[in-house]
Amino acid sequence: MAGAQNATAPVPPAGAPPTAARAPLTLADFGSFHVGGRDYVVAGQPVKEVRFSANGPLTRVDPNGTFVIGGMYAQYTVPAPQRGRLPLLMWHGGGLTGVTWETTPDGREGWQHFFLRRGWPVYVSDAVERGRAGWTMLPEATGGQPVFLTEDNPYERFRIGDGPGSRARGTTLPGNQFPADPVNYRNFMRQNVPRFTTTDELTLDAYLALLDRVGPSVVMVHSQAGLFGCRAAQERPELVKALVLAEPAAAGDMAKVAAVKGIPMLVLYGDYIDGDARWRTLRANGMQFFEAVRAAGGSVDVVSLPERGIRGNSHMMMMDHNSDQVAGVVQDWLAARGLWA
């Protein structure tokens, strides 16, 4: 009997600490919902016949009518006791989903757990066209075609590998913290999903609907979501009480910087940026916006992790081996602003 139990027991992910090492989490509530979306009408298309299952009958499907597009998924987890004074909303980057925050490729707890363990109510979302959110392949509605990445692309573009061809070589930047061995990097690639570059308006609308539903919150964003976090703060300054930006790939509307002067911002940048022309440009673009916010009277704290002695971080700092150390920088900043009891 013991042998049979061992044979069917789940195998923990590579690198995951034993269950006994993880203190239990007590939850007051958890659940999920969808928000956002709009109607989109299709007309003039031919009726199709579709076989929905093997050996099943042909079924008439009329592609004309009203479709719901642009919905977004959100999962909430509320700890007990609660110490965060506001909900913490986690918004992922391009080609990714809310899994970004939930776990690491080598099986360690992600930032969702880190902040839950410190008493924050956490909302992890899958943005429009990602994960468990609504998906539409109507070109007229999306304005374009989705982009999907090869295995080489994030390895080189996210400052994991040491330049072109590094994925094939299996080489990384010196001291790189991302779990880049073949097994765990493949775990990361399993998370990657197609993304559109033409649905920003739909996505921003869904994030605004999320804020309207949840109410005043701390918003934490990564990469592509830098645009949505800054724009949402500009559109709903009364609902965004603090904004944490992990390597934003874009920022807000320069014409509306005054709208966010009352929202404290923390911006985090990882390592190796000075040696990467693309990331130097993205950082410089972001700094133009953040300097404009400061000039308007706002508070923006920009942290270069290597200047803090936290070295080796890739673009995916919430998945790096030292992810808890980076999260600690965020936690301390939020606590210093009276947002944690």
Series of H and E elements: HEEEEEHHEHHHHHEHEEHEH
Strand content: 15-25%
Total count of domains: 1
Give me the CATH fold name.
Rossmann fold
Q: Which strand order do you get reading across the main beta sheet?
A: 1-4-6-5-7-8-9-10
How many individual helices?
Answer: 11
* Uncertain runs: 1-15
Mean pLDDT over the residues: 93
Instruction: State the name of the first-level CATH class.
Output: Alpha Beta
What's the main sheet like?
Answer: 8 strands, mixed
The structure class reads alpha/beta
Radius of gyration: 21 Å
Proper CATH architecture: 3-Layer(aba) Sandwich
Report the end-to-end length measured between terminal Cα atoms.
Answer: 49 Å
Task: Give an overview in words.
By secondary structure, the chain is α/β, with parallel strands linked by helices. The protein has a single domain, classed as Rossmann fold (3-Layer(aba) Sandwich), CATH 3.40.50. It has eleven helices and ten strands. The protein has an eight-stranded mixed beta sheet, sandwiched between helices. A two-stranded antiparallel sheet has the order 2-3. The longest helix has 19 residues. The protein is globular. It starts with a helix and ends in a 5-residue tail after the last helix. The N terminus is likely disordered.
